[in-house]
Design a protein that fits this description.
The structure is a homodimer.
Chain A (H helix, E strand, L loop, with lengths): L5 E5 L2 E2 L6 H16 L7 E4 L1 H9 L8 H16 L2 E2 L5 E2 L1 E7 L10 E4 L6 H8 L2 H22 L7 H16 L9 H19 L7 H15 L3 H10 L7 E7 L10 E6 L11 E6 L3 H6 L5 E2 L15 H4 L1 H18 L3 E8 L2 E9 L4 H13 L5 H7 L5 H5 L2 E2 L1 H6 L2 E4 L1 E4 L2 E7 L2 H9 L4 E5 L7 H6 L2 E4 L7 H9 L2 E4 L4 E4 L4 E4 L4 E4 L3 E5 L4 E4 L4 E2 L5 H13 L3 E6 L2 H9 L5 E5 L2 H4 L4 H11 L4 H25 L4 E5 L13 H11 L3 H11 L11 H6 L1 H20 L5 E6 L5 H22 L6 E6 L2 H5 L1 H7 L2 E4 L1 H9 L10 H6 L16 H15 L4 E4 L7 H9 L4 E4 L4 H15 L2
Parallel strand pairs in A: 4-5, 17-18, 18-19, 19-20, 27-28, 27-34, 28-29, 29-30, 30-31, 31-32, 32-33, 33-34
Antiparallel strand pairs in A: 1-2, 1-3, 3-8, 6-7, 6-8, 9-10, 9-12, 10-11, 12-13, 14-26, 15-25, 16-20, 17-24, 21-22, 22-23, 24-25
Helix pairs in contact in A: 4-5, 5-6, 5-7, 5-8, 6-7, 13-14, 14-20, 20-36, 21-24, 23-24, 24-28, 25-26, 28-29, 29-31, 31-34, 35-36
């Protein structure tokens, strides 16, 4: 094979570089880059992602010749580090870590201290003169290796890790120790032997004592962990393709736990929570890297900027070792200049010498991402276009989301304080497990996930929870990292809580307060405070930097963004978020919302009318309500286009179901309750989604359409008389071809003429249709001859194209996504196959029928960044989405224009 | 304009000919052809169908210059007839009749006696010396003209015709007359004057006295009637495109009512009911053509072959005027040789001279069509291919449909006898109006339409009724013609019945028996007998000519025909009809049908299982039932392929709904009734058609799939051991892409291996999928990589493509067809747009994925001739339909192959 699978780095040189992420993974490419920059990096090898793909294609066998290439590369590593792998005198130890193109923190497996074995133990003890450290490392290797390589990678899942953990706990109990710190070198040695025996007993094979076997096993295990359950689940959420694969980085070990002059830490070149330009990080003396992120010990602050309530008593690196701190700080500044982005770094200090273990572009909150993008632009580090691409559209969400009303918060009952790990506020019911979070959310509850600490197994629950609260962990703990990536409200390290997950309770120590499952709390993630009960939340006040950013965004955006609305209030909110019109106004709302009793009652009279006369009477009664609603909306959006969709839902949705309502209606109609019940039953449909709705109602009862159209034109005429500039658009739903549009247009034209005459004005309007039935896409050319605009109703279109009822699909849809039958939930993101092809076809055919056809989208997917990009590529004129997603759609549209720009 | 709109015929010459039907309409082309053959045809002009299209395109204005062309053509007519239009001395009278490409009997308007006016009346009276005849013609012209030209064509619908009819009735009452025959010439004259005054009063304008105005008005009115309600409705049913347009034939009037040497009649060159080679027809002395078909007088027989119970006392034409009869008979024989088909002719004898007024290919029953095709083939008049195309596939229906069991019929209570106008037997509830027939049928009733006589307004009701019974009319009456065209059971002229449609009763005269709405009768249309109550019907015995015909059909057929079946009995019936396999076997049946209690109960245990163990137990219990069912079907179809569809419907369809069933199940599962109710509620879906069904169930509960597959393979293996040749095919329903197929295939492969091993046999089978969700059509290429065959489930595919729930669409679908929004019901015939495009695409993409992919269809449309043609054009390997439609599909497939043949 002529494929090169192994790339070396170290000795201020490397075979790879930063832009080789696809092949080397992010970690491997960045390690190479740091070497090229001359930074102190322990030498190592990167085994390519291609090798991972080949490994899976080859039935989980390492490609032939790979290990030969590895041993060859190891000679370079040994030379740079001045040590020898497996050597009795001067043994080199290695780590094996995953590294995919995109960051997947903690989702794959790692093995440390590889190379410790009976042959190398004496040499390293001699060299370090620290038998406790060596045996500690050894027992850690056994635990990790047995778990990751022997148990999980082999798909055995015998739970060896838990059994070894239990042994460790029992051992400490027997000895009366309170913490690991009390374990002596002999204890560690004894434990290592006990562990090896247990491994043999449970797994049926020995823990390998051959360093070569250890390294090969570790490489395989990292590849294997690419398809581990949590990695697969994370990829789903983060939209990382399964076929990217991971690289494996095998790197010389350096030890932050080699004594009092050793340490380990992590940092960000700017504050990832708020975006301020300070070197932000944490470290732990005499510790291994995992200890910092695990959240078990409270880490020390890096510097004065990083001090907070939890850690202010601990010495900072800046205070303790100013020279090392300066070296680190300088390194970080160089890195930021090189990468032109905020970086997340890991370092280790081994016996007074600094090593950079990792650098990568850091994750941050949306607030921070936006601030950093604007600051870096102002610092001339990046240009405008780059600034626009630096904020993920989804991240804007958190800038728009509610916060606690400070006045109310001041008097609320504070339960506990923790670290402000994710901004914004959240109200919800407490649950204590990821599974419960998923299940409660599925039934429509808003939940807060309360845990001691979180781990990668919890990501599904964290995803669905409105907020996260943990009793342990720091700002770089798993919970904080994940929540921040998603812009989710999160508090970590609320030490006053005693969370007992198995009992589903949390005690607020010293207060007698017990938080039980289902209790309602409010979290303020910006402050790190948790309150009893549901506090009133308020909109995030307008952020001037956000406004400035969105102005730049709009400079690059070419596609319109409108909003979907049900009320004039919705419309105003969306306008404040930059909506350029209403793409879908649902008149239905007036029959559902507060104060809807009167119109709903009249609507019911119309629905259950026994004769055309009765029906017409009810329709006439209904018109003023409809007109008022439409007029208010036109006023709210004065000068901007407002697309009114004609009545859409099947009528029986509005039919009275309770005995009381039926009685009331019977009296009003002068018929018996039995008659009402019979008429309601007549209306019942087996599959209402595909029943008598939308334009089908209008065809059967033209008077309903005429009433709506008259209300709209009269509202428009009155506003014109008042000097306003209403821009109404009429949208016909659920059409299957051009003829329904033609028939409906006859009524519309008639009423238009009547109203224009009556008011002496010339009303301009657009006439168009929803495209939400697959057949409509096929007939698009002839439909465009009747319609001036199309708006894709991708909710219904998805239902029909997949045969998925939104109301019922939750029984199997999550399983369809889990099992990889579908890449994503097609109700959230337009599936380019199926629905996507229909849209592309309808655009092409529609524009054939009418070259200047306006085309938009008003399904839920209109606010989904991936779908916005799809719409851009299909030449849509606008997307329309719910008010809170308007800025997201604006940013996504700008990014699409920059990415595919013309 | 250089367009030629007017074609003349007459004087043994013509500008048109028989193959110009598109331009001249069937009637016009055939009139021209008869002239070219030298037959005696009154001269006239045909105004083209193109003129009709231009008339509609031109906002219902006659094209400029048309009337000049007409007047020019009239000179030719005048010369041939030796009379002059509008002349005082020797006036020519004209008729104006419609004539479209396809026959639309009685659906459009006709005006006779055009040219009678104050200027021409004296001349014609002098010429005929028959003032009563002339004034009778005059008052008929006024009535017809006022109705057709002045009222209906203008869209006024003032009901002038009814008012004039009432005047006539009143006049007769005042005079004490019993029938029209007593009206004298003076009476007729008085009536004509009264009519003109009434017309002026009601319509606001005078009846035109100018012959030129009359003719132009009549031409316009005929064009206008192309879009009359009944014409449009008929076109829908008969699938005649709206844009064909009608020609107008203006032809010199000849009079069958000019006295005792005049007559009029209609005939068929062979018996249209049974196909025998006899000249078959009826005539009336001294009458106009309309009188024969109106069914008001019982017409005379043409010859001895045409005598029957009703007319045997009346003299035949053959007896009365043997020379004229011979001339007519010779003419008909010449025509049949010329046209090589059975013809339907109209003739008039005016004062001893024979005129041919019309000839066209006659409509017949399916039985007759088949016999005539076979006879003509044997007579060497036509070849095999032509014979195959002579029977409409739909017509085979009647050859397969049930007849009365003669033994039971012998003892049944006979209510009345009439003419056997449409073959086969029918049982149903009596209704007395077309509207009721439609409405009752819509609610699922089988009805018999009982009328005095039928008219074109009744076609909708006749269409839906299982049988038709009239008290008036002969074998060429409207009811008989229409029923025969549709192969529907029909009895006409049951004179013993006194049908009072307004009161919804019919009295059997002289018996005291009253037939009320809703009473159940049985009609034997082959004999013309009606019986009280529901008689047992039996299958039509096998017809040797039918078998011979189908053998020829299969010689030309290239596409396979299979059947859809739910039981082994279905399968056997279909095999007897020529099914070459089962294209869709629905295992669901065993849970619905008789004796289904046991499997249904076990199925319910499975559905409502509370744990995997409980479910597996129920599944194991279910397997023997499933296996038995599958084995019986494989035996029935031994050697032929049988496609088993995996369980398809949503589970809640099977859930127990009654308290008793719930109790029983609760006991069996050892849970409370409340638990059962809760689990049933959990299963409830809002749109079950798009819910948890088909492969989705298999993904969620793989054990269900595995059980079915094991049952099938074990049944197959056992049959192989018995020396049989089972050919099972596994079909996965409701798939949306290839991945579901891949996942399911893993289970299938596993079970296949197990069963093959257990029985020591090598089971061959095909693995495929339904294509019934729009997305599947888009993903067809990747699906074909997993599936060896596709079968289009066009029922579901239509539901999703249109967003039409079959269960609910009846509320609006008929209106959609009526209003022309849809050309046809897409659940009956594949719509080439939408569903058709999806099928074409899926075929292309599927064969890209697997070049030898087998493709079939198993939706209802698989037995629809138009759809079978569509399938042929798309290269499908087979169609599959219900047993009774198998011969229809075979014929349709053969006709498609002949039409588009390769």
């Amino acid at each position: 094979m002529s494929k090169k699978y192994v790339y070396s780095f170290g000795a201020k040189n490397a075979e790879g570089k930063a832009d080789m992420k696809e092949l080397l993974g992010g970690k491997g490419a960045n390690l190479a880059e740091m070497c090229l920059m001359g930074l102190p990096v322990p030498a190592g090898l990167t085994i390519t992602t291609e090798c991972c793909t080949d490994y899976y294609a080859n039935d989980c066998q390492l490609p032939k010749g790979l290990m030969d290439e590895v041993w060859k590369g190891m000679e370079f590593v040994e030379k740079d580090m001045g040590m020898k792998y497996g050597d009795a005198e001067n043994p080199l130890l290695m780590s094996a870590r995953s590294g995919s193109r995109g960051s997947m923190p903690g989702m794959m497996d790692t093995v440390l201290n590889i190379g410790l074995c009976s042959a190398t133990l004496p040499g390293i003890i001699k060299k370090t003169d620290n038998p406790r450290f060596v045996y500690d490392s050894y027992r850690r290797l056994i635990m990790m290796y047995a778990d990751v390589v022997m148990d999980k990678a082999e798909g055995l899942d015998k739970g060896i890790r838990r059994q070894l953990d239990d042994m460790l706990e029992h051992y400490k109990e027997e000895k009366g120790y309170e913490g690991d710190i009390e374990l002596t070198a002999d204890d560690m040695k004894t434990l290592a032997e006990k562990f090896k025996a247990k491994v043999k007993e449970v797994m049926g094979t020995d823990f390998p004592d051959d360093p070569k076997v250890q390294l090969e096993g570790a490489i395989k295990a990292v590849f294997k962990s690419w398809n581990g359950k949590k990695a697969v689940s994370y990829r789903r959420i983060e939209n990382i393709p399964d076929d990217w694969g991971t690289a494996v980085n095998i790197q010389a070990m350096v030890f932050g736990n080699m004594g009092d002059t050793s340490a380990t830490g992590v940092g960000f070149t700017r504050d990832p929570a708020v975006g301020t330009k300070v070197f932000y990080g944490e470290w732990l003396p005499n510790a291994q890297g995992e200890d910092v992120v695990a959240g078990i010990r409270t880490p020390n602050p890096l510097n004065s900027d990083t001090k907070n309530e939890q850690n202010k008593h601990l010495p900072s690196l800046q205070e303790l070792w100013p020279n090392l701190y300066k070296e680190l700080d300088d390194t970080c500044m160089r890195l930021e200049t090189e990468y032109k982005d905020m970086l997340d770094i890991e370092f280790t200090i081994q016996e007074g010498k600094l090593y950079m273990l990792q650098c990568r572009v850091g994750k941050s909150t949306g607030t921070a991402a936006l601030k950093m993008a604007m600051d870096m632009m102002n610092e001339k580090l990046i240009d405008e276009k780059t600034a626009v691409t630096r904020v993920k559209p989804e991240q804007l969400d958190e800038l728009l989301h509610p916060i606690c009303d400070p006045k109310i918060e001041a008097t609320a009952k504070l339960l506990c304080k923790g670290l402000p790990a994710g901004p914004g506020a959240a109200v919800g019911k407490v649950v204590f497990s990821s599974e419960d979070a998923v299940e409660w959310t599925r039934r429509g509850e808003k939940v807060l996930l309360v845990r001691k600490e979180t781990n990668p197994e919890d990501v599904d629950g964290m995803r669905v929870a409105d907020g996260i609260l943990t009793s342990l962990g720091g700002m770089t703990s798993h919970a904080a990292l994940v929540a921040r990536g998603w812009g989710k409200c999160c508090i970590v390290g609320a030490g006053v809580l005693d969370v007992q997950e198995d009992k589903k309770v949390a005690y607020v120590k010293g207060t007698g307060i017990v938080i039980k499952e289902g209790d309602i709390l409010t979290l303020n993630g910006t402050k790190g405070h948790a309150y009893e009960g549901a506090l009133k939340l308020m909109e995030s006040s307008e952020n001037p930097q956000f406004q400035e950013f969105m102005k730049i965004v709009d400079k690059y955006r070419t596609m319109g963004v409108r909003t979907n609305a049900e009320t004039a209030e919705d419309a105003l909110l969306a306008k404040s978020f930059g909506a350029e019109g209403i793409g879908l106004f649902r008149t239905e709302h007036m029959f559902y919302g507060k104060g809807a009793e009167a119109p709903l009652f009249v609507l019911r009279k119309m629905i259950l009318a026994g004769s055309d006369e009765e029906r017409q009477k009810a329709i006439d009664e209904l018109e003023p309500f409809v007109k008022k609603d439409m007029k208010e909306t036109l006023i709210a959006m004065d000068g901007l286009p407002v697309t009114f969709r004609l009545l859409d839902p099947p009528l029986h949705e509005f039919a009275p179901q309770t005995a009381e309502n039926q009685k009331q209606l019977a009296d009003a109609l002068g018929i018996t309750v039995e008659d009402v019940v019979n008429r309601v039953q007549d209306l019942h449909e087996i599959n209402p989604m595909m029943g008598h709705r939308g334009v089908r109602l209008g065809i059967t009862y033209p008077a309903i359409t005429e009433m709506q159209v008259r209300a709209l034109f009269e509202a428009t005429a009155e506003l014109m008389k008042d000097g306003k500039s209403p821009k109404p658009e009429i949208m016909v739903p659920v059409t299957i071809g051009g003829r329904e549009l033609r028939i409906t247009k006859v009524s519309v034209d008639k009423i238009h003429e009547e109203v224009c005459k009556k008011f002496g004005v010339k009303i301009e309007y657009l006439y168009g249709t929803m495209i939400e039935i697959p057949r409509a896409c096929f007939l698009a050319e002839s439909m465009a001859k009747e319609a001036e605009f199309f708006s894709f109703g991708t909710n219904d279109l998805t239902q029909m194209t997949y045969g998925f009822s939104r109301d019922d699909a939750s029984v199997f849809l999550p399983e369809y996504v889990d099992k990889g039958i579908l890449d994503k939930d097609p109700f959230q993101t337009i599936d380019p196959k199926g629905v996507g092809e229909l849209i592309t076809m309808a655009c092409e055919r529609g524009r054939k029928g009418r070259p200047n056809l306006k085309v938009g989208i008003c399904g839920e997917q209109g606010g989904d960044p991936k779908s916005v990009e799809f719409c851009y590529l299909n030449g849509l004129n606008y997307v329309s989405c719910s008010p809170y997603r308007v800025p997201i759609a604006r940013l996504a549209a700008a990014q699409a224009a920059i990415k595919h720009g013309k």
